[in-house]
Amino acid sequence: MADLNLQEIHDFLIEVAKKAGEMITTAKPSTTTSGEKKNSADLVTETDQAVEKMVSTTLKEKYPSFSFMGEETYKPGDKLTSNPTFIVDPIDGTTNFVHGYPYVSISLGLAVDLIPTVGVVYNPFTTTLYSAIRGGGAFLNRTTPLPLREPEAMKDLSTTVVCVEWGSERTGNDYKVKSETFSKLCARKEEGGAMVHGLRSFGSAALNLCGVASGALDVYWEAGCWPWDVCAGWVVLTEAGGIVVDGNPE
Q: For Mg(2+), which residues are the binding ones (predicted)?
């Protein structure tokens, strides 16, 4: 990684994100023209595909030796390797995009040796930019350090706002676990719950991670994410001082 110019890559990803943002904000999607992938809650639009094509072409021209993984071109069996890899979600929040709800982002990440290393998350509707380089801090709109406010000491979940997402899988074990977890987070302590201040579900994993990084959210709990959902936001969150743990944290 020593020979990679991470600042140059970071700056170039911001340029690409802004270009993608123009494509997204000028598009006119609708629920009747959108396609489906796994089911009716898993939407894809022509804009998703066009943005990913532009991003992949642009990045491959600039960095031909890097690998690429994108949501719209991923095929079952594709594996991440230690090679520098751009991990991209062209529109994180497609359902929001289709319905005109402006909680939408372009998520552009770079993993090196399987470690999230550079992250750019851009909401083109609000022109809000989150970015970070591993070891270099995280920033809002390139100049404002994250978090925006210092988090208070968390004695337990009862003092928190927790972000969650239902996702598009509405059956099976993951759906069951999510339903049970959401209920337990909200339930009274006397009934074995956490009694959190509230649950929030916004529809963009990348922006949710950045919400925790900024201090607007306390926790983001998720199950069933893909690399393109979290790579860029992971860098922003950890560089802002947050932590990411799996289901069995040490």
A: 71, 89, 91-92, 229
